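User:
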Amino acid sequence: MYSVVKLADHPVHSVLVMFPITLYSVTLASYVAFSIGGGPFWFRVGFAANVAGVALAVFAATPGFFDWLLGIPGKAAAKGTGARHLALNLLPLALFTADAWVFDGYWSVAPSSVALGIVLAVIGLGFALTASWLGWATVQEQHVGIVMVPQPTRIDYLEDHRRAA
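Assistant: Predicted structure:
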């Protein structure tokens, strides 16, 4: 099983997924900071992180979808794990999209409360982390995107190094 979308032999999906997860976390932390009196700056940081997280989630999902569709054989266990990973990631995408929609138009004047945003972000981040665990399982346990070659031993490395010298 392999990754279809690569850049310099690295699977693009696994390189990009850290961005939406981080931005979703920043959204939650910023909304909490705003709600405990941090000022409108923190609302704006949270809102911007939310919108960027949604955009980058779609951007990261695209190569992941093609890897799942074209790189994993239909009968492989990783196909099912990948499908659950994909489906579960749609929930945080929807929740953070709703979160951004709720606060659209508040950039100039922050809302009086972001309680709904915090609830949506907590639930969305929980689903995102669960989906991330499934993504980890496809790589670490089912070896999607990993080239399976024997690792050289230290002795092999030293012998190769001595021959080259």
